[in-house]
Amino acid sequence: MRIGVLSGGGDAPGLNAVIRAITKTAIFKYGWEVTGIIDGFEGLLTPTKTRQLTSWNTRGILFIGGTILGTTNRGNPFAHKTVVAGREIVEDMSSMVINNIKELGLDVLVVIGGDGSLKIGSGIQKLGVPVIGVPKTIDNDLMATHVTFGFQTAVDTATEALDKLHTTAESHQRVILLEVMGRYAGWIALEAGMAGSADVILIPEIPFNIDKVTEKLLDRKKAGSKSSIVVVAEGAKPAGGEMAVREKASDGYVLRLGGMGEIVANEISRRTSFETRVTVLGHVQRGGSPCPFDRLLATRYGAAAVELIAQKKFGEMVSYQPPLITSVPLEQAISCLKLVEPEGELVKIAEGMGVSFGR
Ligand code: F6P
Q1: Does the annotation count 163 as an active-site position?
Q2: Which DSSP string do the residues of 56-78 spell out, in sequence order?
Q3: Which pLDDT score, from 0 to 100, does residue 60 have?
């Protein structure tokens, strides 16, 4: 058996841990070969970019961020974009990818990715190549798994930032806003906001009313608080308003969100006498060493992916259904995003403790 493995989409802490677990389990337990595909699906175009993975070259990478294989979140072979003479051309390169997978002698392709990469993986499976999915994204927005690897590390990073912002906010009597990632899901904002004791948490799932936000900040001041902390998910939006989009593709697809922290800060400054500051945490949330939870989850996912191959359960994605790692059909995994439930337990606990979601 020869396994091909690639990481697709934005990186997330724990990718190397998955690659290591797949390689070691395949080699030590089953005596199989593992071929790493370089730069996600781009490495399956002609000329292919691969590297043999061994127990030696996957040593010492468990705790290292990023991915030794490289990745890209702009390489969809079903709608591959190139710029020729200043014009963008979109082509379906999937048949080239399928041919190259055959030429490389791969019996199965393991796709470590978020919803975009798993959708591509599902498309490749439909074209006759056995595919196994591993759920990755700091956004934690995949429906068919309790949690994706990378998310917990991102929450840790955002929480640590909040701990630091509290002390400087208090010294200067400021309102400090922290903008965090998460795309259309507010998981990082909600969990880091709660763990980092934020006073206001703005998430995409609960469109906010800026008057409610300022009311909360003014109430805190009246009650004697010197400073306040507001967590803003990059996908947060005002009721009846739009998300802050940084970059769009020519077809209108939103490539990057960002800027809502600044917008909310300006509104707070305009409506109150508070001095505001904004920190955009950005890609710090994606980099660095995975936390122990993510190292373990990624390792379990990688080993489980190899077991699915051993059982010939192709077209499945490994899934964490505590306490077990099981699997679900890829189709189910990509059918819809997992978003924060506006009336869910954590939101209710937060509101019961006085945290404002701006509603
Ligand atoms: O999906 C992961 C993620 O980090 C999102 O939270 C964020 O919106 C996006 O990727 C940023 O992507 P890029 O790497 O293109 O800046």
Answers
A1: no
A2: TTTTT-TT--S-TT---SS--GG
A3: 97
Residue 149's φ and ψ, nearest 5 degrees, are -75, 150
Instruction: Work out the average pLDDT over 230-245.
Output: 97
Mean pLDDT of 16-25: 98
What string of DSSP letters covers 93-123?
-HHHHHHHHHHTT-SEEEEEE-HHHHHHHHH
How far does Cα 23 stand from its chain's mean position?
Answer: 23
CA 272 to chain centre: 35
Beta carbons of 313 and 330 less than 8 angstroms apart: no
Could you give the domains of the chain? Answer: 2-149+290-333 (3.40.50.450), 151-286 (3.40.50.460)
Ligand 1 geometric centre to CA of 38 (Å): 20
The answer to which of 9-23, 167-181, 239-253 has the lowest mean pLDDT is: 239-253
Mutate which of 138, 151, 285 for ligand 1 pocket (most atoms within 8 A of beta carbon) = 138
Q: Is the pTM of this model over 0.85?
A: yes
Q: How far is the CA of 118 from the centre of ligand 1 (A)?
A: 16
Tens digits of residue pLDDT in 87-104:
888 999 999 999 999 999
- Say if ligand 1 is within 6 A of residue 102 CB: no
Going by pLDDT thresholds of 50, 70 and 90, the confidence category of residue 127 is very high
Give the torsion sign (CA, 228, 233, 239, 244): positive
Phi, psi of 347 (to 5 degrees): -65, -45
Distance CA 231, CA 157 (A): 13
For 59-95, how does the pLDDT look when each residue is reduced to its tens digit (9 = 90+)?
A: 999 999 999 999 988 789 999 988 888 888 899 999 9
Q: How far apart are CA 101 and CA 254, in angstroms?
A: 30
**Among candidates 259, 277, 257, which has minimal Cα distance to 268?**
277
Residue listed under structure tokens 């840790």: 156
Q: Which helix (H) or strand (E) holds 252?
A: none
d(CA 159, CA 38) in angstroms, rounded, equals 33
**Contact between 135 and 317 (Cβ < 8 Å):** yes
